[in-house]
Design brief:
With about 290 residues, the protein is α/β, with parallel strands linked by helices. The protein is built from eleven helices and nine strands. Helix 1 crosses helix 8 and helix 8 crosses helix 10.
Length: about 290
């Protein structure tokens, strides 16, 4: 037997959300039939820029009844859902790669720029994916699963940070540390980002929150290096640093961390909601550090 979680919780949860998004795909297919396209493949084969422009204009202006959900199951706003879906369908990255391009165009308003860009992308991708099978739900589902994983990673990070802040607030209230102020958002310092900062009359504590689901490999080394760098930058700027680490299989040497205190929970980040009492207990173990700046 092993103490590690064998079930890929992340994958099963993402697959549930991906299947929920099938309704959005099917509504897009139905939308295209109104313009004479029997399938998404047939639409991609459209050679007329004017026809593509007209269909995309209607697409961005027509409300959909279905929702598109992000990596943790929250529905995107309607206009963002339209943009994300069509970009994912074209196997592209709407935020990281395409958004700066849209901002650089001068076709009119934002939607006009998006329509122009998508028209160009369809022309580009058409010969790369010539098979009708590439435009079926089964093929697109794999793309969406990958995109939702990236979304989930970012959103889960915010969710975990929120839990840490909430427990800190509860502990400080219980301990009557009313002079301590918990930042509502991340702060940047020396090229590093600190998820939680606590300010008191006698100093500031920075708390980078680090989480990792998988084990081993180069990413594990980067994870460890990232923790060390966050601590070093904070300490070099004269701040107390208390890293908060959630990783069930992290092989890093805790004693080698260049800080006096840390919080480490050897759990899968997907389990944090069921380990809030443990996190609270770990915070209370080092309450004297927080008291020192109050």
């Amino acid at each position: 037997m092993t103490n590690y979680i064998i079930d890929n919780i992340r994958l099963s949860e993402l697959m549930i959300i991906t299947q929920q998004n099938k309704a959005y795909y099917e509504e897009f297919e139905k939308f295209l039939t109104q313009y004479g396209y029997a399938s998404i493949y047939n639409f991609i084969q459209e050679q007329s820029p004017l026809n593509l422009h007209n269909v995309l204009t209607a697409y961005f202006s027509l409300p959909f009844t279905s929702y598109l959900y992000d990596g943790i199951g929250n529905a995107y706003k309607a206009d963002k859902a339209k943009w994300l879906f069509i970009c994912w369908l074209l196997r592209d990255a709407p935020e990281q790669r395409l958004r700066p391009i849209v901002s650089s165009l001068s076709q009119g308003n934002k939607t006009a720029n998006q329509i122009y860009l998508i028209t160009q992308l369809i022309d580009y991708i058409r010969p790369i994916f010539p098979s009708p099978l590439s435009w079926t739900w089964e093929a697109f589902m794999e793309v969406m699963l990958d995109r939702l994983e990236g979304s989930r990673r970012a959103l889960k990070g915010g969710f975990i940070e929120g839990i840490v802040r909430s427990i800190l607030f509860s502990v400080f209230s219980e301990q009557k540390l009313s002079t301590l102020n918990i930042s509502p958002k991340q702060i940047a310092l020396g090229g590093e980002t600190y998820d939680v900062s606590i300010t008191g009359p006698n100093g500031t504590i920075l708390m980078p929150v680090k989480s990792r689901e998988t084990m081993g490999g180069g990413h594990a080394q980067l994870f460890t290096r990232d923790i060390h760098k966050s601590i070093s930058v904070a300490e070099d700027h004269g701040f107390i640093c208390i890293p908060v680490i959630f990783a069930e299989s992290w092989q890093g040497n805790l004693q080698s961390l260049p800080c006096q205190n840390y919080i480490y929970l050897p759990i899968n980040p997907n389990q944090i909601a069921t380990n809030m009492n443990t996190l609270e207990a770990e915070i209370k173990k080092i309450i004297s550090v927080f008291t020192s700046i109050s």
